[in-house]
Structure formats: C-alpha cells, structure tokens
Amino acid sequence: MQHAKRVAKNTGILYVQMAITVVLSLYTTRLVLAALGAEDFGIFNVVGGAIAMLTFLNSAMASASQRFMSYATGEGNLDKLKKIFNISFKLHVVIAFILVIVLEIVGYFLFHGILEIETNRIDVAKLIYQFLIVSTFFTVVSVPYDAVINAHENMFLVAVLRIAETMLKLVIAVYITYATGDKLFVYGMLMAALSITLLVFRQVYCHKKYEEVAINFSKYSDKKLFRQMTGFAGWSFLGTSTSMIANYGQTIIINSFFGTKVNAAQGVAVQVSGQLSAFATVMLKALNPVLAKSEGAGNRGLMLKASMLGSKISFFLLMLFFVPVLIEMPYIFDFWLKVVPEYTIVFCTLLLIRKLVEQLFFTLESSIAAVGNIKQFQMYRSILNVFPLIVTYFFYNAGYPPQTIYIIFIGYSILLALITLFYAKRDCGLSISYFMKNVFLRCVLSFGMAFVFSAIPLYFLEQGFTRFISVVVLSFVFFVLTVGLVGLESNERTMFKNIIVSFIKKTKANHG
Known about the structure:
By secondary structure, this protein is mainly alpha-helical.
C-alpha cells in the first residue's frame, strides 16, 4: 500500500506537469510549422529531428543506470551507490565520445547520397546536424545524473524542468515566427542550446543535492561491479541504440522515397503521439524505481504485481486520450493546424494503434531489467528492431504508399510483445495465462467497448464542434464505466478507492 501511495503521489505531480506541457507543446508545433513551412519543417524532422530521439536515448540509457542505483537503494548501501555513480559516469563519457565519432562518419554518408534535400537548403541542414552532435555529447554524459534523480523519485524536479523546457520552446517558436533571416538555422541552434542548458542545470543540482554524486574514480572503484554494469549497460545500449536507429530510420526511408513534405506529416504525427503518450510514460517513470527497489529488497512478488498493474494503468491512461482523438482526428487536425500536411491523419492513426500495442508490455521490459538478466532479451530485440526497415524498403520499391511503414511496425510491435512475454516468464516467473486474462484481455475489451459507444455521435451528427464535444463526453463516461467494470479486478478497485480516500484526507489535513 505504501508503494502504491508513493507511485500515486509521484504520478500526480507528473500529471500536473503534463496538463501544462501538452497544451503548450501542441500549440508550439502549430507555430513552428507555420513559421518554417512544410518544406523546412520536414528538413528539421529529417536532420534535427534526431535531437528529439536523444530524449528517448537519454531516458532509456538512464533506466539502465537507475536500475543499479534503485537496486542498491533497496539494499540500503550508500557506498555502493557512490561506486555505481562513478562507474556510470565513466561509462557514459566513453559512450559519448564514441557516439560523436560515429555520428560524424554517418553524417558524411547522409549528406552524400542518402538524404533527399533541396540543394539550396543542404548547408543549413549540415549545420543543424552539427548542433545535433553537440547535443548528443551533453545528453549522454548527463545520463548518470538523470538516473540519480529518477532513483530518488524526485518527480517534482522532473516536472519543474519539463515545464521550463516546454515554456522556453514556446518562446523559441514565437521568436522564429517574427525573426528575420534563416528561420530553420535559428530554430535548430536555439533548440540545441536549450537542451545543453537544461542538462548542465541537472548536473549542478545533483552535485549539491545528493550525497552519492561525488566524482572520485580512484576511491569509488569496484572491478566486479564495473563488469556487471558494463555488461548490463552494453546490452541495454544495444537494444536502445537499435531501437533509436529503427525510429530515425523511418524518417530516412520516408525521405528517400517521398521527400521532405511527407516527412512534415510524419513529424506532426510523432509530435501528437508523443504528447498523448506522455501521460502514460510519466506513470512508468514513477513506477520503474519501485520495481527495481522491490527486486533489490528480494520481493519479486511485489515487483511482478506492480508491473502488471502498471501495464493496465498506463494502457488506460492512453485509452482515455486516444479514444476521442482516434474518432475525431480529422476535425482536430483541421482545427489545430492552419495547413494539414498530406498523410498526417493516416500516419497518426496507425502510430497511435502501435502505441497501444506496445504500452501493454512496457512494464514487463522494466521487470526483466530489474531482475538484470537482459543479454538474450536485448540481443533478440536488437535484431528485431532493424528488421521492419528492411521489409519496408522492399515494399516501397514495389510501389506501396507511405503509410505502409506504420503497418509493418505494428506487426513488429506484436512480435516484440511475444518475445517480452517469453523472457518475463523465464526470468521473472510471470504467469502468461494470468497476464493475458487479467491484463491483456481486460484492456482490449475495455478499449473496444469504449471506442464503439463513443463513436455513436458519428452516425447522427455532422462533423463539427458539437459532435466533437459529444464524443469527448461519451468517451469519458464509457472510459469510467468500462475501466471500472471490465478493466480492473475487485481488489484493484478497492486499492484505488483507498488511495483516493487517503489522498483526500491528507489534502484536507494540510489545509485544515
């Protein structure tokens, strides 16, 4: 119960942050698209868009370091925490330098025969790529600091930094709207500068706040722990980097066959999907330290229970926003954007479906990482990550439309889910039959029922604001009904009721 309250509190903090940042981020995207135009927005998505992938790389790599820190916290070992931080810092400095070299080599080939960019825009695209490389270095070096913040479950700091970042991005968007000169260059430079500034702030904060953040390589060394962390970080990095390559590879392959205007549609779809998915992602950020600490304390049963409940709740959080958006997507895009790039709606629809499939199994991946035996899982996952790009290339050569890549990646997500289930059973002791019956089936039925009933206004009303509001209201009503009656088991309903009652009592006591 104490774990549940802590997760609920941290999740609540992050949701306040998300309520602010989602609206601002979506409005910022509208401003940037209008200021740059579809062509330059597409170029930024191809070249500078990789900066966005660094957020994914950073969080995934931080989770590897966080696993050891949370595990040691569960053991109550401060000296081990200091050793873990120092080893993690050394590892990530090496990784940062390697990545810079690799990106410089890759950049040569990207700009000499792979990317389809207009000749008059190639120079600014190269400059944006260099901004990306500088951001990459600082992002990777700061991974141990992000791991410390997450291991301490300091979600208030995470929320404050995220709100500050979003507001500064809005300032940048407003600035380039009225700026003279090359707006794409200015936007790329300011975005890189913003990421570096925020990462440096995290480092300074951690050195002042947390006792284990003390760099002394000679004093805090441990060869056995170094081998364990190197192996774990290496396999984690393999899975993370191939996943990043697969995601960025989608941008490259779309650009090669269809040009930057289709990349603009992809950029908008990714932005919408990312913002809507963030409500579920922040819950996992609050949950992951609990999984590792539970495993570190030797309580595997609690770890699995928290993992399966996390799968449900994160899926339901996606469902809350995805149902009305999937039903009324054409109206939403027409209202939101001045000009909707072609293929945006079909890209976004398929991407949201893929997110729903993946969300059911994300916490199981965290459980596998908490146990620590990740070598085979990451090996097979890495091979699977690049496979869809190869398949897509042959389909595009055969003349298939741009949305084909998203259909193929949905199939990839299903295969990855099966692999995750296998290793969760083998390494964590997960009961697949229990998971399928009490997590997967309940989630799918809840979503299907809520979607069907929420779509009723489409048969009686014309597209417009009245129908949109009707869909939103119905989707919320049927979300509550289906999740409460179908999605949750009786003990889970009781637990949530107790958490809410406890939260209300505490709030009244604080204001009494």
